[in-house]
Amino acid sequence: MEKMNPVEMCDMSEVHEALIEKINRSLPDEDDIYDLAELFKIFGDSSRIRILCVLSVSEVCVCDLAAVLNMTQSAVSHQLRILKANRLIKGRREGKQVFYSLDDEHVRSIIAAGMEHLKEED
Amino acid sequence: MEKMNPVEMCDMSEVHEALIEKINRSLPDEDDIYDLAELFKIFGDSSRIRILCVLSVSEVCVCDLAAVLNMTQSAVSHQLRILKANRLIKGRREGKQVFYSLDDEHVRSIIAAGMEHLKEED
DNA sequence: CAAACACATGAACAGTTATTCATATGTTCA
DNA sequence: TGAACATATGAATAACTGTTCATGTGTTTG
């Protein structure tokens, strides 16, 4: 891939040129970064975090989720759809009900990593 | 964004009542969940992730960031402000330039946790 | 089959957000 | 002091997102 035309660069271009080269080589793939941002976007909503926390405790059906989280069934379903599409949870039908549970062990570790940052603040 | 709504619950209320009680007790504090979502919101933008990835390699000034990431200086500054306000990065002035670097070890672990999820997909 | 229930989903709306543009602040140096 | 440079920031705009409302799908049961 050809180098992007530097839109802006400070005067000491010679000095920082090498650094920029080095950084460009060690940056993750553009697509990976995009996917990563998309993933964190999923965690960037308290309703979804709450759902994940509940499912982290136990497999739960949709209406119980709505009850525990004090959300409408529709709102819960919309969020479950997003979580499922991103393979963070999975659904299991049992008669009229659908029970959801975590589909990825990393969900807990991602949440834990975020919590650590919060608990560290002064 | 979070609204109060009428509680919904499926018919088998007696069966799930105990489960709901248990879940309610083990859920994280409401404020913590909110803060956690706010934190992940920061990571939920590819421009900010890219900035964090760059700073994960080296301390870099604003105009070099703009050059590497092919963004305008203004756009970079706006994002740096957000990252700084959330204590993910810190700035160090050196003459006319300001050099930014990571301010939290957890930044790397949060990104790593997210990456693991992506790399796991079939 | 029809009714009741659990859940899913499309459309619309309100609130949020990242970027751009213009301009302000802060620093160095002639 | 004033010009040039590096960065910061306010306002405006376009794009995105979560919820609600209405309705559709799938399942059980009378």
Output the strand order for the largest sheet of chain A: 1-3-2
Q: Based on DSSP secondary structure assignment, what is the total number of beta strands of chain A?
A: 3
Structural class of chain A: mainly alpha
Radius of gyration of chain A: 21 Å
Q: Could you report the average pLDDT of chain A, rounded to the nearest whole number?
A: 89
User: How would you classify the quaternary structure?
Assistant: homodimer
Shape of chain A: elongated
Q: What's the main sheet of chain A like?
A: 3 strands, antiparallel
In DSSP terms, counting alpha (H) and pi (I) runs of 4 or more, how many helices of chain A?
Answer: 6
Intertermini distance of chain A:
44 Å
Number of domains of chain A: 1
The CATH class assignment of chain A is: Mainly Alpha
Give an account of the 3D structure.
The first copy, chain A, is elongated. Chain A starts with 12 loop residues before the first helix and ends with a helix. Helices cover 62% and strands 11% of the residues of chain A. In chain A, strand 2 and strand 3 form a beta hairpin. Chain A contains six helices and three strands. Chain B binds a DNA duplex (30 and 30 nucleotides) through residues 1, 3, 5, 10-11, 41, 45, 47, 61-63, 71-81, 93, 95-98.
